[in-house]
Amino acid sequence: MMCRFHKMHGLGNDFVVIDARTQSLPMSRAMARAVADRHRGVGCDQLILLEPSNVADVKMRIFNADGGEVEACGNATRCVALLIGGDIRIETLGGTLDASSTGEGASVDMGTPRFTWDAIPLAYPMDTASLPVGWEGLETPFAVNVGNPHIVFFVPDADRVDLQRIGPIIENDPLFPERVNVNAASIADGRVKLRVWERGAGLTMACGTGACATAVAAISRNLASSPVDVDLPGGSLTIAWAPGGTIRMSGGATHVFKGEIDLEALL
Ligand SMILES: N[C@@H](CCC[C@H](N)C(=O)O)C(=O)O
């Protein structure tokens, strides 16, 4: 079956976006993994499937490169806002989000962060503002759900954390029944430097929900004030949040090219 797609990215976090609003497209885990494969497929961190929605302008389904369907993706939300244009409501598994495209990107209300242990979710009750756990010198992370689960470690220099090695160990720790996205952050001059090991995708050039989670954690611990700029390997996002409120994320989004793939031939 031939299928048109858009290749897009948000700060280098890249997506294959398939618009299935007018023609339904059953998506399996194996198919999503095959499209995302950088050698045998198109290649991306996440496959994004757009479908009709009963509650919003569009439904956005998100599949990690490992094929698993997940609840939220900040960078893809900005890309979809750019693709559709104007002010739109986007239904996701993690909530319905309001987004507006701007000249070179988009601004999105990512909703209210959740802090209770069972909302992260964790395997058992703990103080999520400072989890009494550690992995090889990475200690007392902040846990928050911003549509998807994150933990945030504040370290002297985020560049010195070997996320490629420790990221998958933490992601798959039994403490996190849904697995977890792992953020390593450092603060300098009021800005956040962030690197992210993404659940189901590995190290990416940027993670929008990671930036939201880290900004919430930094503001909650009085390490930064809102709005805060978050510098990721692929570029910067601005995150605004006040306790009790919703998170606003603003930043770039890019349409790279349009293409066509034979989905059946990939399997
Ligand atoms: N790249 C994303 C997050 C994608 C989903 C994440 N890997 C998960 O499994 O929750 C972003 O920009 O937020």
UniProtKB/TrEMBL annotation:
> Per the record, what are the reactions this protein catalyses?
(2S,6S)-2,6-diaminopimelate = meso-2,6-diaminopimelate
Which biological process terms from the Gene Ontology are attached to this UniProt entry? lysine biosynthetic process via diaminopimelate
Q: What is its EC number?
A: 5.1.1.7
Q: Which GO terms describe its cellular component?
A: cytosol
User: Major location, coarse class?
Assistant: cytoplasm
Function summary: Catalyzes the stereoinversion of LL-2,6-diaminopimelate (L,L-DAP) to meso-diaminopimelate (meso-DAP), a precursor of L-lysine and an essential component of the bacterial peptidoglycan.
Which InterPro entries does the entry link to?
A: DAP_epimerase_AS (IPR018510), DAP_epimerase_DapF (IPR001653)
The subunit structure is: Homodimer.
Marked site (Could be important to modulate the pK values of the two catalytic cysteine residues) residue numbers:
H150, E198
The enzyme class is isomerase
Q: Which Pfam families match?
A: DAP_epimerase (PF01678)
What is the name of the protein in this document? Diaminopimelate epimerase
Q: Provide any one GO MF term from the record.
A: diaminopimelate epimerase activity
Keyword annotations for this protein, in alphabetical order, are: Amino-acid biosynthesis, Cytoplasm, Isomerase, Lysine biosynthesis
Q: Its family?
A: Belongs to the diaminopimelate epimerase family.
NCBIfam families (alphabetical): DapF
User: Where is it localised?
Assistant: Cytoplasm
Pathway per its UniProt entry is: Amino-acid biosynthesis; L-lysine biosynthesis via DAP pathway; DL-2,6-diaminopimelate from LL-2,6-diaminopimelate: step 1/1
Query: Organism's domain of life?
Result: Bacteria
